[in-house]
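Supplementary Methods S3. Input chains for the assembly prediction are listed below.
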Amino acid sequence: LSNSTMVFKRFVQIGRVARVNFGKDEGKLCVIVNVVDLGKVLVEGPIEYTGVNRQKISIKRLDLTDFVVKVPLGARAGTVKKALEADDIVNKFKQSSEGKKLEIQKARAEMNDFDRFKLMVAKKTRTRAVKVKLAELRKSG
Amino acid sequence: DLEIEDIMAQKSWIHEYQIVGRKKPSELQPEPPIFRMRIFAKDTVKAKSRFWYFLSKYHKMKKTTGEILTVNEIFENKPQKLKNFAIWARYDSRSGTHNLYKEFRDVTRTGAVQQFYLDMAGRHRVRSRSAQIIQVQEISSTQCKRPNMVEFFNTNIKFPLPHRIQRTTNPSYRKRFRST
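Predicted structure tokens for the full assembly:
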């Protein structure tokens, strides 16, 4: 069974970069470094690099990303950090569509009333510009 | 500041205590022999109780005739290293009492013991009061016997997550009980 025929594209595997989606480390990236069982993995940030301490974490608390780094089984903080830096995973994730979506979501959640007003005005301006252009095109035939 | 979900995920309820006790010194025995036990319990109160429970089975002493010299918590040496644990235990079933050998994969001894109690409750309906842990030992992967352990000793382990249920991250939508 080759990977191209697999329905699944993201696997729990050594070196898989995952994002914590629950708990105090929510939103931070980490690397799967060992597998405890089908529901839990050992994960490493490392803590000075992404903020996730080396810990046993439930897979339910992770969102797997598209990225995999080459680390040996049970790799420690130094190795994990080097591998993440070599592939520039943190930035690559931020630039990926998933990463961008998360930033937008975060920005939306942190909006204050003035930001929402500015957003409303911006939407109105854009819609107006589109409608004006559309009316022009309709008139010209 | 940890939320309750973090606490529940990170730490096991169970602690390992070293309890040292002896019979109260008397005129007949001014320096009685000292005994030490490693007890897994949720708190020191329960640990001390279990200490007397076991010790009175081995020696002629009990809580009233003895004294506890120290209660120390034993912490894991390497809480970030994944280990394999073998647990020998004895439990009461509905029809008799049996010995058991189980293997668990965890990061701490107390984590493995917590898994053990949950496993016993789930598989055998054994309450923690009916299970006695005889020994907990860290073993190497070559010493593991159980197939559910051996299948994880694979450097190229890889599996997908076929039945993924998204949990809400927005704190205002988090519920204590979920319908899905």
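The first helix of chain B runs from residue 4 to 10. Chain B is about 25% helix and 30% strand.
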